[in-house]
C-alpha cells in the first residue's frame, strides 16, 4: 500500500478483477444463472470456512474471498514516497441462500445467528498472526459499488488499524467516552429513529451522507464479545428495523461495523450510509472534509419513523 505524502492515509492499488459495467449491471438486475453465492453453487467456492445449516440447506456460509480487495498489483515503485508491503486476509459471509432475499428480510432469529457468525469470525481472524484490525461491512446495490446482487458481508483483516478507527479509539478512550455522551443525548432528540433496552438507532447531527443512520449500544460495549445473548437479540432486532427503514427509501447503501480492536477501549457502533442522492447529486461531494446533504437529519429520522 502507498502512504499519503504526509498524512497517515493509505491507498491499495488492487488487482481485483475489473468487471465490465455491463456485467455488474446484469448481476444487479437479477441475472443469477452464474451467481457464486446461490444455493447449489457451492462448488464455485470450494473452500468453506464454516456454515450454519437450517433444515436441509445452509443458512449462512463463509469462505475466503476469491477476489480480494486488498490483493495489490505487483509494483516496485522507485520513488521517494513510502510504499509498504502489507498482508491482509478476506472472507465472504453470505447471509442467505436465496438470491433475491435481502438482509432486512431475514427473521430476527436468523439475523441473530448471522451476527453470531460475524462475532465468531472476527474473534478467530483477529487471533491470526499480523492482524491488528478486522473490518466487517456490507455493500448493497449498484451505487454502493457492490458487484454481486446476492446479499453478503465482507470481512477484511488488516495488519494496521485504519486511520478512521484510530480516531474512533481516541474518541472512545480518552477521558469519558464521546459515544456514551452522544447516545445519552440523541436518545431524547428528534433524530432518534428506533430504540430498545440495549440499543439506539439515530441519524447523526452532522451526517456525511443524506439519511445516514447509526446504531449504537446504550452501554459502553467495546465489541461483539461484550454483548450478552440478550444484547445480541436486541441488536438483531434494531438492525432489522433500521435496514427495513433504509430499504423503504433506498436500495443502495453500505453498512459498516465499527468493532473495537483487541485490547482497545472502544464504543462499538454500526454506520449505515444510503446512496440516496448518488445518481442525482453526485456533485454534492467535495473532498476537503465538508459534506452536503439534501435533508436535515431530523427530517431523515422522521422519514425513517414513518412520520413523513
Ligand atoms: Zn445468488
Ligand atoms: Zn462509550
From TrEMBL:
Would the keyword Metal-binding turn up in this protein's UniProt record?
A: yes
Alphabetical list of SUPFAM superfamilies matching this protein: HIT-like
Q: Name one GO biological process term.
A: galactose metabolic process
Keywords noted in UniProt: Metal-binding, Zinc
Q: List the active-site residues.
A: 152
Q: Which part of the chain is the HIT domain? A: 178-286
InterPro entries, alphabetized? ADP-glucose_phosphorylase, GalP_UDPtransf1, HIT-like, HIT-like_sf
Quote the protein name from its UniProt record.
HIT domain-containing protein
Amino acid at each position: 500500500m502507498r502512504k499519503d505524502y504526509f498524512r497517515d492515509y493509505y491507498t491499495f492499488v488492487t488487482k481485483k478483477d475489473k468487471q465490465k459495467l455491463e456485467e455488474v449491471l446484469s448481476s444487479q438486475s437479477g441475472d443469477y444463472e452464474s451467481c457464486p453465492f446461490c444455493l447449489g453453487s457451492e462448488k464455485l467456492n470450494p473452500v468453506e470456512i464454516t456454515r450454519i445449516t437450517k433444515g436441509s440447506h445452509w443458512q449462512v456460509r463463509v469462505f475466503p474471498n476469491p477476489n480480494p480487495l486488498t490483493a495489490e498489483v505487483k509494483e516496485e515503485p522507485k520513488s521517494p514516497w513510502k510504499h509498504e508491503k502489507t498482508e491482509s486476509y478476506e472472507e465472504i459471509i453470505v447471509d442467505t441462500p436465496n438470491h433475491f432475499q435481502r438482509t432486512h428480510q431475514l427473521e430476527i432469529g436468523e439475523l441473530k445467528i448471522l451476527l453470531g457468525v460475524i462475532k465468531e469470525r472476527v474473534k478467530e481472524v483477529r487471533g491470526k498472526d499480523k492482524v491488528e484490525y478486522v473490518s466487517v461491512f456490507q455493500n448493497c446495490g449498484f451505487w454502493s459499488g457492490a458487484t454481486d446482487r446476492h446479499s453478503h458481508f465482507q470481512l477484511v483483516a488488516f495488519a494496521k488499524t485504519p486511520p478512521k478507527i484510530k480516531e474512533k479509539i481516541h474518541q472512545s478512550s480518552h477521558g469519558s467516552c464521546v459515544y456514551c455522551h452522544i447516545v445519552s443525548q440523541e436518545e431524547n432528540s428528534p433524530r432518534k429513529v428506533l430504540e430498545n433496552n440495549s440499543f439506539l438507532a439515530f441519524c447523526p447531527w452532522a451526517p456525511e451522507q443524506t439519511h445516514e443512520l447509526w446504531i449504537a449500544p446504550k452501554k459502553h460495549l467495546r465489541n461483539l464479545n461484550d454483548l450478552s445473548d440478550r444484547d445480541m437479540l436486541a441488536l438483531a432486532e434494531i438492525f432489522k428495523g433500521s435496514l427495513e427503514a433504509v430499504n423503504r427509501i433506498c436500495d443502495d447503501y453500505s453498512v459498516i461495523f465499527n468493532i473495537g480492536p483487541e485490547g482497545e477501549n472502544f464504543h462499538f457502533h454500526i454506520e449505515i450510509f444510503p446512496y440516496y442522492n448518488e445518481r442525482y447529486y453526485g456533485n454534492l461531494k467535495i473532498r476537503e472534509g465538508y459534506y452536503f446533504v439534501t435533508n436535515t437529519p431530523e427530517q431523515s429520522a422522521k422519514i425513517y419513523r414513518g412520520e413523513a
